[in-house]
Amino acid sequence: MAGPEVNIDRGKSLLLKDQGNKCFQAGDYAGAEALYTKAINHDPTNPLLYTNRAMSLLSLSKKGSSEPQDPSAIPVLTPIQIENYEKVIADSLSSIRLHAENMKAYYFLAQAQIALHRPSEALASAKEAHRLCVEEIHKGGKGASSIGPITELVLRCKKEAWEAKEKERLDAQGGLVRELQVLLEKERDRRVEELHSQAATEMTDGEGVNVPVEEQKITEEYARKIEEVRNMGVAAGTVGEEGKRRNVPDWCIDDITFSVMVDPVVTKTGQSYDRSSLMEHLKRTPTDPLTREPLRMEDLRPNLALKEACDEFLEQNGWAVDW
């Protein structure tokens, strides 16, 4: 059954959009969202209206939220924030369906997904936003102002995706430790039971066994074994990570920001930098950071081999994002 027909009025829709933009600029995000909704009702074919509403909803979700005191803690979202982030995802996807090469929609989509603790989905969206941003830059568009924030988002998503995998690994490892502990406890109880059976038999035969002393020995023996298993689990979960923290390879470090590169590009001299940091440098001074010779964005070439290596390194070492 066909849905109701929509009487499109693009003039009215654009007027409402402009009013929504004024509300947004004034910090009235709820008012902006309401006006963008009215604009969509008059023209549901305009992808820009969905990204504008998504932007308002993002701002509403972030407004009034406070960072947790513990940086490692996962922020607790209110039901309204969760609902708003879900709406951002819906609007971003609607915009993408109307315009596939929509950098802003993918950027907003990634922000909502990472806020809802969906790092794998967020990383895919952030990477697509980054790809579209680079394409826009090459075409001479306005992507240069967005490359920095999008690169930061890619790094955050990479880190959280790694942390999610690491949590799964540690949870599985903790399960194994608990399983070994249960087996040792069962073995201990079996030996204590055998001790008591042996004592009962020896009493019948006229011989005695010091049960309390022997039972204490068994209990202490298995307490040591259980503690060793626990310590091995802790060591396996931390030593490897700490060891990696001391070994960040020089080839993946950007010489401008000293951070791990996400999208390395190579200059005419053969030196590689992260695209976002080099573009920020070129805004200030159009020269090669190393040789001080004139350098333009058109002179940069993607270093695909290095990018692949950096991607692999970050995938396995998400902690390096904060290095």
UniProtKB/TrEMBL annotation:
Keywords of this entry: Isomerase, Repeat, Rotamase, TPR repeat, Transferase, Ubl conjugation pathway
Entries under Pfam families matching the protein: TPR_17, U-box
SUPFAM superfamilies with a match to the protein in the record: RING/U-box, TPR-like
GO MF annotation list: peptidyl-prolyl cis-trans isomerase activity; protein-folding chaperone binding; ubiquitin protein ligase activity
InterPro entries, per the entry: TPR-like_helical_dom_sf (IPR011990), TPR_rpt (IPR019734), Ubox_domain (IPR003613), Znf_RING/FYVE/PHD (IPR013083)
GO cellular component, one term: cytoplasm
TPR repeats: 13-46
Limits of the U-box domain: 247-320
Transmembrane segments: none
Reactions listed under catalytic activity: S-ubiquitinyl-[E2 ubiquitin-conjugating enzyme]-L-cysteine + [acceptor protein]-L-lysine = [E2 ubiquitin-conjugating enzyme]-L-cysteine + N(6)-ubiquitinyl-[acceptor protein]-L-lysine
Any one GO biological process: protein quality control for misfolded or incompletely synthesized proteins
Protein name: U-box domain-containing protein
Organism: Amorphotheca resinae ATCC 22711
Taxon lineage: Eukaryota, Fungi, Dikarya, Ascomycota, Pezizomycotina
